Amino acid sequence: MFEKPIVRFFSVTESTGDSVHLPEAGSPEEVVFFKKIQEQFKDQFEKVFPDKLATKAVIIIPSLTLDHEILSKVKGVVHYEERLLCMLMLLRMPRTHVIYLTSTTIDPVIVDYYLHLLPGITGYHALQRLTLLSCYDTSPKSLTEKILDRPRLMERIRQSIPPGAATHMACFNVTPFERTLAVHLNIPIFGCDPDLLDLGSKSNSRKIFRECGIPVPPGFEDLHSTDDIVTALAELKLQNPWLRKAVLKMNDGFSGEGNALFSFAGIELQSDWKQWTRDELKNKIKTVANELDCETFLQKFQQMGGIVEAFVEGENKESPSVQCRIDPDGVCRVASTHDQLLGGESGQVFLGAYFPAQPDYAVPISRMGKKVAEALQQRGVLGRFSVDFISVKENDEWKHYAIEINLRKGGTTHPLLMLQFLTNGEYDSEKGLYCTANGQVRYYFSSDNLMSKKYEGLTPHDLIDIAMMNDLHYDGTHQEGVIFHLIGALSQFGKLGVICIGSSAERARMYYERIVLVLDKEGK
Question: According to CATH, where is 3.30.470.20 located in the chain?
């Protein structure tokens, strides 16, 4: 999926004044260099992370380093770099510095909005320790590629790190591009080594789930050619005569945008299932990304490889996920469970999530997620990842099918981080509940897709005015309320992200419904 980064040689002048030549991007030498940098991170994690008064610097790279063509189908995708603004809450530690990179500049009113949420720190104090750097580039290239194309910008990153600060990079996902950047900056990443990325492919996810004894839908992996797809679909139908639909998934697709549905509707018993499937393939495929035609989908599928699996159906069906974290000390933690809200014509597109997952199954899926985390830790994986499930209630019991592993941050990461930063609490995976530092239970509903044509033209300043006038804000005293994100996408795309925190799931949803009522009224 990822092409070799095209990065020219250049020299870095360190504080010693020495000139250092960097290894060629993608070379074995670079891989060795990166692994040495990563070895330093365990010591930093164990000794510096726990000290809230230590001098630290965190370089935030919110780059969605994913397939350009598929990513381009997401409206306002450049503003998704704002989702990790939740990490500005790290500035609540009075000697921590944050260096935040984006493709385009962030409106100061958005920055002020986040700094206003900081508990126990003034905005002025936080601003002295915040560096915002922009590439001034709205092209489809990933943010990390843009940074690598700008040696002077990388030098500004180095100059922004306080002398002696323990420093690491926090990235949305880690690919060979992020590895090259880490080597250029000589700074470790709290994330998965790119050499292990393939563990999170759709094909390898199924293999790991089976290794862990976790059920998966009937299907086939390691497919590449159109003939592979045809054979898998025909065999799947032959083995499961009741099957009405199948899902085709690219190995490295995301948020459902790399998926397509294949319908067996109208099919009768065939003497040659494979020939029928071949003849009907392009007529029966419906891509999840509306702008991605069938021909392009099949071309991308052949490039990435992928799987074919049964579309799981049921009258009572949910799409929970488990978010885990593997720390440098080897400890595997279940960070959260969510019930994902999926939409779109095919029901495959991530729209939002309820936290935590339903009490009926939050604990069982946590234990499954923990098994996957331990299996990945044995393979050397580091950082945050999530496991997605499809859960169907049959005879008053839930049956869970593991669907995929996402070796990166995702749509459920930033809401959880924001809740933890604001309340200093933790999720108890054995109880399926989140409690604040003072022992109060909290829930939230979050969405990256609150969108309407009515909202187009509302600027960030307008949104803040509307929020203040209608009491749509987070109340630190009661630890409830509303936090907005993706604010930069509002005016052009009519699109906004929200996190609605409440003392009950019902109160969290109530906040969301109130936001929609207010914005529908205030919009054009």
Answer: 317-522
pTM, 2 dp = 0.90
E strand or H helix that includes residue 155: helix 151-160
Q: Reduced to 3 states, what is the DSSP secondary structure of residue 38?
A: helix
Q: How far apart are CA 80 and CA 65, in angstroms?
A: 12
End-to-end Cα distance, the chain:
42
Query: Confidence band (pLDDT; 50, 70, 90) for 15?
Result: very low
pLDDT beyond 90 at 158: yes
> Which residue from 110, 98, 108, 194 is spatially nearest to 144, judged by alpha carbons?
194
Q: Which residues does 411 contact at the CB level (< 8 Å), separation at least 6? A: 255, 340, 350, 352, 353, 446, 448
Q: Tokens 């600027």, residue?
A: 459
323, 416 Cβ separation under 8 angstroms = yes
How far apart CA 171 and CA 143 sit, in angstroms, is: 11
Q: Is 425 helix (H, G, I), strand (E, B) or coil?
A: coil
Give the residue from 262, 225, 246, 221 showing the smallest Cα distance to 405.
221
Per CATH, domain 317-522 is 3.40.50.10490: no
CB of 382 closer than 8 Å to CB of 362: no
Let me know the angle formed at the C-alpha of 415 by 466 and 42, rounded to the nearest 5 degrees: 140
Cβ count near 212 (within 10 Å): 18
Question: For 178-191, what is each residue's pLDDT tens digit?
Answer: 999 999 999 999 99
Which CA distances in Å does 160 have to 156, 320, 349, 393, 469?
6, 40, 38, 53, 37
Out of 263-267, 408-412, 474-478, pick the least confident.
Answer: 263-267
**pLDDT tens sequence across 82-136:** 999 999 999 999 999 999 999 999 999 999 999 999 988 999 999 999 999 999 9
Burial class from Cβ neighbours inside 10 Å (0-12, 13-18, 19+) for residue 153 reads middle
Decide if 282 contacts 296 (C-beta within 8 A). no
User: Shortest CA distance to 475 belongs to which of 112, 93, 117, 92?
Assistant: 117
Peptide bond into 218 cis (omega under 30): no
Rounded CA separation 171/59 (Å): 8
Backbone angles phi, psi at 236, to 5 degrees: -60, -45
Q: In what order do the strands lie in the sheet with 96-102?
A: 130-134, 96-102, 56-61, 166-171
d(CA 491, CA 519): 13
